[in-house]
Specification:
- There is one protein chain.
- With 169 residues, this protein is mostly beta strands.
- It contains two helices and ten strands.
- The relative contact order is 0.21.
Length: 169
């Protein structure tokens, strides 16, 4: 009886230690799509008393491939490579803790189209972290901040409802 209880206990411990977490949970190749919106707030030059323009712009949905690889011998550090279809490649580091991933801040280029048919090309600073769901889907919440200029007008850009959803290939 004692032997069978001991064997069952050993099996349970072994199974619990085999569960993926941290880097092992996230490593792999994914397909991703982003969505969300940003707010543009006009920055007026000193002395300008006109009312600044402010509006919200939906981001163009971006699709692509996401690769998460181990970073050397560091236990839960990974390299994240985002390769947007027809767009740029972003490489950043991240840290995995359980079923959460915390990306190092990075910059990305983006095109924004406003309701006035104004096209703003700009560089955005991105802060991102996410979580793994059901061992195959990552949802990353991102915050975009930056500035853009168009027709001698400068806009502060901020978006805190940007989502990247990635499914393991």
């Amino acid at each position: 009886m004692k032997k069978s209880i001991f064997c069952i206990l050993c099996c349970l411990v072994a199974m619990a230690s085999c569960q993926k977490k941290g880097m092992q949970l996230f490593r792999g190749d994914y397909s991703y799509k982003t969505s969300g919106s940003v707010t543009l707030n006009e920055i007026l030059p000193p002395g300008d008393t006109t009312e600044p323009v402010s509006f919200t712009v939906n981001l163009l949905n971006e699709i692509g491939q996401l690769e998460i690889s181990a970073l050397g011998n560091e236990r839960d550090s990974v390299v994240v490579v985002m390769n947007a279809m027809g767009g740029e490649v972003i490489v950043t580091h991240a840290f995995c803790d359980g079923n959460e991933i915390f990306l190092q801040d990075f910059t990305k280029n983006s095109l924004l189209f406003t309701g006035d048919s104004i096209v703003l090309k700009n560089e955005l600073n991105v802060h991102a972290s996410g979580q793994m769901y059901e061992d195959n889907t990552i949802v990353i919440n991102m915050v975009y901040d930056g500035e853009a200029e168009n027709n001698n007008r400068t806009f502060a850009i901020h978006g805190d409802n940007i989502r990247l959803a990635a499914t393991r290939n």
